[in-house]
Amino acid sequence: PPAQVLVVGCGNSELSEQMYDAGLCEDIVNIDVSEAVVRQMQERSANRRPRMSYLQMDALQMDFPDAIFQVVLDKGTLDAILADEEAATLAKVDRMFAEISRVLQVGGRYLCISLAQAHVLKKAVEFFSQEGWVVRVHQVPSSGDKQQFVLPIFVYVLTKFKKVPGSAPQILEICPEDQDKPTRVESTERLLETVRDRQHYALLRSQLSKASSVEQLSLDLCSSESGSPRYTLHVVDSPSVKLSRDNHFAIFIIPQGRETEWLFGTEEGRRQLAASAGFRRLVAVALHREQHYEGMAGIQAELSGKVMELAPPGLPAGQQVPFLSVGGDIGVRMVQHCNTSPLSGEYVVEDVKGDDKCYFRRLIFLSNRNVVQSEARLLAPAPLPGQKKRRKDKRKPVPTEPPSAIDKSYLCCEHHKAMVAGLCLLESADPLPAPLSVLVVGLGGGSLPLFLHDYFSRAHVVVVEIDPSMLEVATRWFGFSQGGRMQVHVCDGLDYVAKLAAEASARYDAIMFDVDSKDLTVGMSCPPPAFVEKPFLQKVKTILKPEGVFVLNLVCRDAQLKESVLATLREVFPLLYARRIDGEVNEILFCQPGPQGPRQPTELLARARALEGALRQPGHRWDSSYVLADMLQAVKIL
What we know:
Blueprint: E1 5-8, H1 15-21, E2 28-32, H2 35-45, E3 53-56, E4 69-75, H3 77-81, H4 87-103, E5 104-114, H5 118-130, E6 134-139, E7 154-159, E8 171-175, E9 183-185, H6 188-210, E10 217-222, E11 229-237, E12 249-253, H7 262-265, H8 267-277, E13 281-287, H9 295-307, E14 323-325, E15 333-341, E16 345-353, E17 359-365, E18 372-379, E19 405-406, H10 414-421, E20 436-441, H11 447-455, E21 459-465, H12 468-477, E22 486-490, H13 493-502, E23 508-513, E24 524-526, H14 534-543, E25 544-556, H15 559-572, E26 575-580, E27 587-592, H16 601-615, H17 625-637
Parallel strand pairs: 1-2, 1-4, 2-3, 4-5, 6-8, 12-13, 12-14, 20-21, 20-23, 21-22, 23-25
Antiparallel strand pairs: 5-7, 6-7, 8-9, 10-11, 11-13, 15-16, 16-17, 17-18, 18-19, 24-25, 25-27, 26-27
Helix pairs in contact: 5-6, 10-17, 13-14, 14-15, 16-17
């Protein structure tokens, strides 16, 4: 209250009068360039506010002595003056800032109320931080008044310090409306980015509060401590759902580790989830692996206030919004290993619980964290001989520690099943050639080459992997091992194929490409574009036996690029079959160099049955029915 306050560009605002009447402060000097405004305001406060004065004066050239005020208050004046970034405008602002700095005491504050357009905030922050001032930006809490601005209001609190010779560190802070304490930021750019995020979120909230049906959108809620994403929220509207009192709005917590599944990880899947849940608006919430969560109750307590800001219009007042999940829990995710590869970047190996209570081990590249690179099912520990199965004690907690042994007989990835099914296209009088030579480019966790090695007893498998870190991961975490019929070459697949092609020897019955692209800017994430260029495909054809099959896992979202790839493949391989994977972007292409026309479906069916018979020979410890069913389905599609 005893502070002497200067209000620059007061206009006819009631702010000074309200501060005076509320007893916040009384020694207030208001200045404005308009004589009419100053006269009007003097008349309004005459005899009512004796310690408050109004003066006609330009904030760019003030008549006050130096260091006379403890506070300079600016409500919208800077926003009005800095309407553009012309040189003359910036010069005006520099003069205003210099005058404010001159009349303000050391330790005093310049409080600037602003809508924080990027160029306005940047100018204020850069000017005063270079002068050695402490810069803090507060977001004004919204009042809940529906008539208020859509954009949030900010207050720059700029505290004057004596300028230290040399390069003193900048002190920049942000205090959002939902935080009690300010957060230090490292740069002006980061401060601007944080404010911009808040402005976008305010616009988003306004849009969601007025429209009952919007395009599906996603946003990250970040940890106030680390600043890293803690929750990803997907807002999904279902206009076709018939509205009743109790189905306006719900929150669905995606179990940990299952955010990559089609139902949760794609827009189409989430639309299906929202429609089947029966709510007009559903917010699907994904949990991040770097964060710790205190169960469903903890998540509900943490999110309840924030998700209500995304509620649809017409939500009845006081209505309880349900939190839903699969089985009522948040799932299990245990990170077993994380590291960084020079070629693949950051990656993580984690164990997650699936919807059938089985545990799965996954390899995830964090550059594309919603895609599972490799997956293997974990075997439940078998009881020891003679050990009786204990009755469940409901009072004891069920252990959540996942098993650790890899089930090598199970192919988790649907595209791997389809790739194995492609072996039914091999030309041979016998069910399988003896021996069967297979080249696999792309190791990942090793599930595909392991399966070929273990369940095709006459197969000799050569694997080419460019990243030595992946060989280490596959060996340590996915049960992969080399042996007499399994060899791994750590090198570039392009170089390996080119070297063999130079020797001009057709040596492989099957060649399989399951290699991801590190370039996320291309609309094709598998394989890298160089692997489907015509000169390289001709080299692949050179090392493939005339009756062999080339199997390619294609993941391409760019329709034009996909057509170009298919056209190039057809130029090299006369026979091309395509197998689409339901619910996935993957498409498995079977290419053959033989000049003969496409074989009849009956012949393919007979070959698949012959392969089935071979796989059911005594000594096979694998129940092959699920892959064989896939082979027969592939035959029908072909």
